[in-house]
Structures are given as C-alpha cells and as structure tokens.
Design a protein that fits this description.
Helices cover about 20% and strands about 30% of the residues. It is α+β, with helices and mostly antiparallel strands and about 150 residues long. The protein has one domain. The chain has a five-stranded mixed sheet with strand order 1-5-4-3-2. Strand 4 and strand 5 form a beta hairpin. The N and C termini lie far apart (about 65 Å). Keywords: Nucleus, Transcription, Transcription regulation. Belongs to the TAF7 family.
C-alpha cells in the first residue's frame, strides 16, 4: 500500500501547482512547495513560493479508495484515504470541525446526515435495566419486573 492524501486547494493555487509540476524547474517562479503542521496536528501552513496559505487536516465522512493501473486494463487498489488537507485563501476562515461534512463529489454533499443512520436516542435508565436483566438471565436467574402470562 502506498501513502496518499487528498490536497484540496483554491483554483489559483491549483494553477500554480500544475505549472510547477509541468514546467522545467528553472523556468518557474514558484520553486518550492511546503506543508507545515502545528503541534495539534490539525492546522498548519501551506507554502508555494513566497506565498503562505492556511491548511487544515479534516476527516472525510467516508473512506475513499484509490486505484492505479499499469496497462490501462487492470486496476490495482493502492490506498484507503480517510482524510483530506484543505488549503484556504487568506480571507477564508479555518474550519472549526474535525470532520468535513461533505464528501469529495457533489452527490456526497452532507453525506453523514443524508446517507447514514442516526444513533437512536436511548434512555440510560432503560439501558441499565436491560443490562442488569441480561446479566441476571446469564447467571441463571430471571429478569425483574416482568409478568409471565400463561395462555393454557
């Protein structure tokens, strides 16, 4: 398995990165890329040339699989990706949440709320009572506060 990550950048930064990767190293004004995280491991700085942008490490709502091919026929799974580094312009705010609400594509917008079942609201007293009854039954006893009806 390879180590991979998703880097989401603003369009202007994407053009500069593409130019840096496609042109000869001596002809580009943006000669360096750097990503530095602070001690919390979730926020940091992305640098391209002399410009600096704020960056955040966010958890994706689902795991994304990545594949590659050597012969344009057979796909080989290379990684499971569960996090994304999001780079923001200077005016944009840094996200407060640890999890990114939306996936990578438009159909996954607000995926957690729309596609996954919510956890049920449980009364802690009921859970404790059922747990106690199950422990009594496993120990050979009976559950408390139940009525047994005979239909004969």
């Amino acid at each position: 398995m390879e180590e991979q990550f998703i880097l989401r950048v603003p369009p202007s930064v994407a053009e500069r990165i593409e130019r840096l990767l496609n042109e000869a190293p001596s002809s580009s004004e943006d000669k360096s890329l750097d990503l530095i995280f602070s001690e919390d491991g979730r926020t940091g700085t992305f640098a391209i040339g002399d410009d600096r942008f704020s960056a955040s490490l966010l958890d994706l709502p689902t795991v994304v699989e990545s594949y590659k091919t050597y012969d344009d026929n057979v796909l080989i799974k290379t990684s499971d990706i569960g996090q994304m580094i999001m780079v923001k312009e200077e005016g944009d705010g840094v996200p407060e949440a640890v999890e990114y609400r939306h996936g990578l594509t438009p159909p996954m917008r607000d995926a957690r709320r729309r596609r996954f079942r919510r956890e049920p609201d449980l009364n802690p007293d009921v859970v404790r009572r059922v747990e106690k009854d199950l422990q009594n039954i496993m120990a050979g006893g009976t559950a408390e506060n139940i009525d047994i009806l005979s239909l004969c």
